[in-house]
Design brief:
The protein contains nine helices and no strands. Helices cover 51% and strands 0% of the residues.
């Protein structure tokens, strides 16, 4: 695993969770749970190790249509769906157990709702215009130029959003 890439993914996830569910974010933080403890398990294999086969198929379909944005959206949605169970966890091991085993118990409809409806569309907007999961000019995944947090882009940063026009999204009924 590329530590810089996962650091960026976890930071974006944590920032969105803090903005969208501050009580859950605070509870998980108080327990010492970091997104790096569960996000790789969920996302490295695109949910294949964590979801039932039917849900995994749906996750792959959404990923093919929506792209990488779906990864953060689905992780946020599943975390929010598991939120009531997570809020009852008194310690890190029980919380980790919910995050490891909870997604496998989700039905197709509950996963679809979690991945697509529980997350506010505005929540998926970048926290700042330069915050991306894409590579910087040196090929490293980062939140800002050269892995820094909070710095605006430099002239060496690629401007992919300006380089190509937005492509239309396919409409898929699932």
């Amino acid at each position: 695993l590329d530590q810089a890439c996962w650091g960026a993914v976890c930071a974006v996830f944590e920032a969105h969770l803090g903005r969208g569910a501050p009580a859950l974010h605070a509870h998980l933080g108080a327990l010492g749970l970091q997104p790096f403890f569960f996000l790789p398990e969920w996302l490295v294999a695109l949910w294949c190790r964590s979801l039932r086969d039917e849900c995994c198929t749906l996750a792959w379909n959404y990923f093919m249509v929506e792209g990488e944005r779906f990864l953060i959206a689905s992780a946020l949605g599943v975390t929010l769906a598991l939120g009531p169970l997570l809020m009852q966890c008194p310690d890190l091991p029980s919380c980790r157990d919910v995050l490891s085993n909870g997604p496998r118990g989700m039905s197709v409809s509950s996963f679809r709702d979690a991945a697509t409806h529980l997350v506010e569309p505005a929540l998926l907007q970048p926290l700042a215009p330069w915050m991306t999961l894409g590579p910087d000019s040196y090929g490293n995944a980062s939140l800002g130029p050269n892995g820094s947090r909070g710095a605006p882009p430099t002239s060496t940063r690629r401007k992919s959003a300006e380089a190509e026009p937005p492509r239309p999204r396919a409409q898929v009924e699932l």
